[in-house]
Amino acid sequence: MTKSIKIALAGNPNVGKTTLLNHAAKTHLKIGNWSGVTVEKKEGFLTYKGYDLHFVDLPGIYTLEPISEDEWIACRFLKEEKPDIIVNIIETSSAERDLLLTTELLEFGKPMVIALNMSDEARKHGIEVDHEHATKLLDIPVIKTNGKKGEGVSDLLDAIIDSVKSQRLPKVPQYNREVEQALLSITKTSQQEKLDKHTLLERLADNTLGNGEKSDLESYFNKDISGIIKNERYAFAHGFYSDTFRKKKFTAKDLTDKIDKIVLHPVLGIFIFLSVMFLLFKISFDFSTPFMNWTEGFINDFLSPLSQSLLSNVGAGNWLSQFFSQAIIGGVGFVITFLPLVAMIFFLLSLLEMSGYMPRIAFIMDRFMHKLGLHGKGMIPLLLGFGCNVPAVMATRTLDNKRDKLLVMTMIPFMSCPARLVVFSFFAFLFFDHPAFIIFGLYLLGIVVGLLTAFVLRKTAYKGQLSHFVMELPPYRTPRMRTVLQITWAQVKSFLHRAGTVIFAASIVVWLLLNIPTNRQNPSESAAAYIGKMITPVLKPIGIKDWRISTSLIPAFLAREIVLSSMGTIYSADEPPQHKDFHFIPALEHQVIGLGEATKSSVLSLFTPDVETFQTDEGSHSLRTVIRSSFTTASALSFMIFLLLYNSCMATVAVMAREGGKKFALLFLAYSFFIAWITAFIVYHIGGLF
Amino acid sequence: MKFFSGYHLKRAPNRIETKVFAIPIDHETTLNDLKIAQTACIINFYKENEAIKKVEAMGLRCGENVVILQKLGRGIVVKTNNSRIVLTTDVAENVRVK
Fold it and tell me: Which of A84, A159, A384, A433 has its CA 20 to 30 A from that of A186?
């Protein structure tokens, strides 16, 4: 029988924890959230030498003193979930800084292993470590590792198993005599089970144990208790560093400093940032769009008719056949259509994150963002919102503060995505002489509403001062492709699991609404039409008076561009349905050729100077004719504004619910409906005057 | 003349050696007052708030030398040992340097 070992991976940010976890767990990486919060939780699973190893990657922190959400999580995990062993990962070249956390971890008195990571970088800085002496001093294994190449990972795994098997405990740090005496004294007053040193120090600091030891110490040192404890920990860390680390006196030319002179430059920095963002957009959208189109075609033109053909061959009824092909395959298919885009965005974001550039963006943009009451880091999700709101909402995880996350999340849905652009292009070209100005104006309106929303929320629901901005700029590193791909894969799995389940259920509901009662003759008799007719009075004041337009908004909740196809379906309901014969081999051949063409277009799109995703067609000619008769110029503009501002995208709502809570997502949905309705109402009535 | 007493107590696990030292402070200078490429030594912190606790944990500790790499808006990039830290002017004004 295999034994299970729960391992807590603890370390400062950017010390290579995730890279080491990837080496250890390979593809068995799971990305989720810590319960109750939106801080990302990475876990890895591995069976090694008869042991089931369960790695839990704690948030990157500098200290266990619970200041931020990350530190609370790490501290709570170590205390409440009681891991079998702690693996403390130290960046060798910044060890003196990292050793504060090491000191605090040692206080728990749990089996522990230290991984001295990035030892190759340290050597370049002239830093040498006597790791045998370090092992002797702390009585725990100290292993040299290299996250990039995976060196030392098997030694680390062996050390983990040996330490748990032998229950090898570390030497707990010994502090000043007076502090130790105070701890001994409060231990005696404790009636509870044996407390570890970290908890004892906490009890001493908050004065929940003992008989005045805290005040005695404070008067002895003429310092408050937190200052005394902090000094003791720093002194231990410094002493350990002096004994085990040696730094040669030479000045290596630091490449990071040279690059930063350009990247952090007040003018050049902005230019580089804009170029990087353009490339991020271009590569992610242009590269993934052909694959997204192919996936959509594969599902609608191959899988769906295939399933219909198979079901009719086994004698399944028409209704069941349609349910399976449209609701089940169509619903799951909708989620899968997003996959190339989500995967590409996370791949590129991981590249930026692992190269060390991402925190630089936050620094460069903070001077603009803080005027809006936001941190510089908020810029990245907002820009991604113009591509797709779903990964943009997920990208708010990079923000440290919950208030900032929620504020940015409320702005993202107003950033117009290409799905809306499809509808805008159709209506703008149909009703306006200068469609480009109208589309540009809509984009601008979205940005203004997003900014106003953030401004109002900052003054009301998310009051409070903009928190300070403190972060580390890691050195530039060449990202390891395998690690980037592993992280992307884990994010893709997480996306499928999270958004897919909700959208799958919703697509079944929408399909049912469009298809019940089963004996309906045309869409006007369906439950969706019934709801459409019910909501028409609500939309009438904004110029949407036709029930067929209101009804088309219902399936559009799955994806905004569906508005056009829904309108097409509803308007052409009187026409008899066309049944096409499905032939497996030619259809498969068509799909294979389509995949080849998609790959070719993806690669070629990278060599064009502009972002091709935004070059959309205007829709079919027949639909244009019927739509022109149903809208006026004012109502068309009002309709576009409503579609721009109302968060009518199930995927975005689902991801917002996941990241910010169900209440938050529903409240925002209601707010976006309200703001969309009001704006559309004003525009429709002013537009009607001309 | 004011004096600052540092916590550079050298206390390795197997022995205890204490080196308390004092640095004379001539004038009041904070990180905010330094210019790009200027180097200084951190002598103490005016406040012990959460931000200061964080920058201390990140490596900006008393006795450490820092160099200003860049200043942009409210942000300052400082380098100490091998770490580059961004902090805003409201945090930097509490870091006393010489």
Answer: A84
